[in-house]
Amino acid sequence: MRNDYKNWLAERNYQENTQTAQLHRVKKVEEYYGDMDEHYAHGTFDEIIDSLQYSMDDERRNKANHSKIIFDGNIRKNLQSYKSAIMLYRAFLEDGGSDSKIPQSFLEDSAISTNISATEDKQQKLSLERDMQAALRRNILSLEPGLKIIDEGIERGVESGFIDITCDDGDCLVAVELKAGKADSRAIGQILGYMGDLIKEEGGRKVRGILVAHDFDQRAKSAAMAVPALSLKKYSIEFNFLPVDNQV
């Protein structure tokens, strides 16, 4: 595991205890499967992820722990945490690490200046989404009364990607997806994919989704109307201005 992974987690506003837990879990997987960087380089990362799959149906059938990892406690919850941890580590490797930067030679090439601007815009949106997630995690009840976060402070890794926040309302599992700015129909497809993954992994549990954005285009609104288990919620940002006492 690379030394700059902790910095990458910190840059994405993960709490200190969450950073510690993620580092521990990646090290635990490496203890039984070998160096994750080597698996990534040799294209065997997905094989490890597959070995950590353990569904609710597997649990009902009382299947044994089929992974190489030895641990105590609930098999499904433990394997889910290890799977999410190494999926996040793979995202770190794909991102290039905490010190990844746009080379100066690219900045000097006017032919791709538009692409650079688009990349920077995307990075700004991702940064805002991370800030939104951190704020919402601190006060999840502001989104909806009765929600309880159950993902241990980290995005849950599923087949379609990463669920921003996974909750339980006492009756359903709830996938919460956050989008900075206006959400389009692609965001609907994304959260529906996450909901489907939860249904697959947590067979027997009811699943619903909440998509949060500043606004939604008409196609997104129309698509959501066809899915009773999906709700759309707008966020707003308020600024408070306070006087500064500049007298000496």
Q: Would you write up a description of this structure?
A:
A five-stranded mixed sheet has the order 1-4-5-7-9. A two-stranded antiparallel sheet has the order 2-3. Helix 1 (5-11) packs antiparallel against helix 2 and helix 9 runs parallel beside helix 10 (218-225). Strand 4 (165-168) and strand 5 form a beta hairpin. With 248 residues, the chain is of the alpha/beta class. 27% of the residues are buried. 48% of the residues lie in helices and 15% in strands.
Give the secondary structure arrangement, pairings included.
Blueprint (H helix, E strand, L loop, with lengths): L4 H7 L4 H18 L2 H7 L2 H7 L4 H5 L14 H21 L8 H4 L5 H26 L9 E2 L6 E3 L2 E3 L1 E4 L3 E7 L3 E2 L1 H17 L4 E8 L1 E2 L1 H8 L4 E5 L14
Parallel strand pairs: 5-7, 6-8, 7-9
Antiparallel strand pairs: 1-4, 2-3, 4-5
Mean pLDDT: 86
Give the spatial strand order of the biggest sheet: 1-4-5-7-9
What is the global morphology? globular
| End-to-end gap | 52 Å
Helicity range: 40-55%
Strand content: 5-15%
Number of strands: 9
